[in-house]
Design brief:
Layout: E1 5-11, H1 13-16, H2 23-34, E2 38-45, H3 49-62, E3 65-69, H4 80-87, E4 92-94, H5 96-106, H6 115-118, E5 122-124, E6 128-130, E7 139-144, E8 147-152, H7 156-174, E9 179-188, H8 192-198, H9 200-204, E10 210-217, E11 220-229, H10 232-250, E12 254-256, H11 262-273, E13 277-281, H12 287-293, E14 302-307, H13 311-316, H14 322-328, H15 333-347, E15 351-357, E16 372-379, E17 382-389, H16 394-416
Parallel strand pairs: 1-2, 1-3, 3-8, 13-14, 13-15
Antiparallel strand pairs: 4-5, 6-7, 7-8, 9-11, 9-12, 10-11, 15-16, 16-17
Helix pairs in contact: 2-7, 11-16
Length: about 425
Amino acid sequence: MRTINVEIITIGDEILIGQIVDTNSAWMGVELNKAGFRIAQITSVHDDANHIVNALNDALKRADVVLFTGGIGPTKDDITKHTLTEYFDTKLVFDEKVLRDIEELLKNRQRAMNELTRSQAMVPENCTVIQNPVGTAPITWFDKNEKIVVSMPGVPYEMKTAMTTEIIPRLKARFKTPAIVHRNVLVTGYPESALAIKIADWENALPADIHIAYLPNYGIVKLRLSGISDDGLSMDFAIKHQIEGLKEILGKAIVYEDDWPLEKIAGYWLTETNQSIATAESCTGGNIAHKITSVAGSSTYFKGSVIAYSNDIKTRILGVSEELISTHGAVSREVVEAMATGAQNLLKTDYAIATSGIAGPDGGTSKKPVGTIWISVAYKGGTYSKLFNFGKLREQNIERSTQAAFLMLLEQIKLINRDL
């Protein structure tokens, strides 16, 4: 079965100057890949007709399908519709149905029709027009010489609605696609290069139709095993078989067998064991709590957080003694353990994570340079603490501390609940 290549072109000066981040392409890539399509390339171009045409010509050399997002609004800087109309040698015509769709969309909104909104009903004559149920700009679908070109809004929720309800179903109906199967394994304790050496023999013995990618992040390496086949179930079974061999080599270094962020894994395990957690954060400033609460359903296991940025909060709220801080310093094993147990007692939880460190860029000393971070996990019966020396970049220190804290938590949850 032939692989169908899709190319994504995002249009807008605001993307190229960094005013907005192109999240559309990432989302589209995931959803198209699930549907069996291969992403050949992603390109961003200016609101410029020549750039759009050049990008489209290049894309059609590689791809069976080209998906545009952006540049189809009613204002003068939105030129995609006019450019594609000229490219496909057609003209704009007024579509009464599009106008009715727009009127229906706006009838209960405090937004009056005007000449610019009405102009959205002007569409290329020789394309298939697809209703946009959540916006005023219709989606246009061109089909020429066995190639498909689709133009969609750049507004993310409008694009996602179009892709989910119309574009992907139509593409699936048009093309017979193979199954693209991915399985992910999260590994800790190995830098990327060391992991590659550790599993070299296993990797070299992989079947030719199974491919591996190394995707490193703070504290973990995600191994992605992928395969393309007409029989998705057989490919999935084959990849799972290879992962069993990997588990024999790496053992406890494997954190989880799915593409989940650490906070989601922690939440799942806490839910499965009916246990709870709190945080007491200094240098991470609430980032760990933010990650925890980003997971739907976290209210069932997360009780709260104390952002103890000052020593006064450490002593008054968490019960850390002034003498302990005076003797050992706020960035110390003794203080971070007292913070963790203080949060655990205060919020009456099974676990508590505490952090104290020097995130930077200032505040370091010769004995405790920037990047010195203590992390402690309190559990019923004790504390588990580690010292880290991450580096000089503040944002990196916060993110690396957060990842390290979750890895420490997961380690303790698994030790205490051995059936996970």
